[in-house]
Amino acid sequence: MLGEAASPWSLAGAGAAVALLWLCAWTLQWAWWTPRRLERALRAQGLRGTRYRLFIGDVAENGRLNREAASRPLPLGSHDVVPRVMPFFCNVLKEHDYYFLRFTIDPDLAREILSNKSGNFAKQTTAGIAKFVVGGVVTYLPIENNRRIREIDQEIRTILRGIIVTMILHEVLRLYPPVVFLQRTTHKEIELGGIKYPEGVNFTLPVLSIHHDPSIWGQDAIKFNPERFANGVSKATKFQTAFFSFAWGPRICLGQSFAILEAKMALATILQSFSFELSPSYTHAPHTVLTLQPQYGSPIKLKKL
Ligand code: HEM
């Protein structure tokens, strides 16, 4: 004997129950099982950090510290912005060498992560321009007349002005990188610095802290000193490079030369007709809303030349 045919409603109910079960299992896997498994794998290798908390992780604590830091502006002229912009990271670093969502302040390791072990950083243009200047002088001086020498002198001054502006822009981007940290996730197990990271580990590369680290940039790390870039970005530190404003490796910013050129053109256009200075109403309060920016804007006083 055949049983009574199932009604469309009971079929829909069964389907919904299966979908709900699947959603619960997926949520459990995503929010609890996977993070706990990754945490165990990293702790087993000696990495320390705050314990994983269901759903919120460290978001609430991060938000609280950010709000607290945002209520206190910095003194004018201070470039010690890391504790204000990344207070949670600063606290973590004081307590732990490493962290579950691993932060690394080692520029070599950061480069390796960003390069995915195969990328190469394009040579900086300033060093190339400097070589061109020297080459130009050596080639022309003995053979050209005074007029040509004066022209070359003018050209060199123009080029040097360009180099100095580039140095200034690099120093601004070092102290105030618009992208304060970069993130990468492992898509398969990877070994770095003697530690095996399973698939799904998030790396946070705190560009801002690397850029302010005295062990990398010297004791004047939080001073504005464009001279450090006199020989190009790669020679500014004892490391190969620790300047990550435009990231590094295969996903390096495609617009980096354009961005520098654009900034130079904007500056040149303004300076042709105006001089400018900071308005007395300026409050020094760098903070992040996606990118690093002045919390209360950047009012300046323009004076027509
Ligand atoms: C000062 C200005 C700029 C800064 C600091 C900057 C910084 C960055 C950084 C850090 C990344 C890498 C993000 C990551 O890998 O997670 C990036 C990627 C990128 N940037 Fe920029 N950028 C700037 C201006 C520009 C401009 C003006 C353009 C275009 C004209 C541009 C186009 C791109 C593109 C297309 C990528 C993606 C590259 C890829 O994923 O392969 N950027 N930028």
TrEMBL record:
Gene Ontology terms, MF aspect: heme binding; iron ion binding; monooxygenase activity; oxidoreductase activity, acting on paired donors, with incorporation or reduction of molecular oxygen
Ranges annotated as spanning the membrane: 12-33
Subcellular location: Membrane
Superkingdom as given in the UniProt entry: Eukaryota
UniProt keyword list: Heme, Iron, Membrane, Metal-binding, Monooxygenase, Oxidoreductase, Transmembrane, Transmembrane helix
SUPFAM superfamilies: Cytochrome P450 (SSF48264)
GO CC field: membrane
GO biological process, one term: lipid metabolic process
InterPro entries in the record: Cyt_P450 (IPR001128), Cyt_P450_sf (IPR036396), Cytochrome_P450_Monooxygen (IPR050665)
Family in the record: Belongs to the cytochrome P450 family.
Protein name in UniProt: Cytochrome P450
Source species: Oryza nivara
Phylogenetic placement of the source organism: Eukaryota, Viridiplantae, Streptophyta, Embryophyta, Tracheophyta
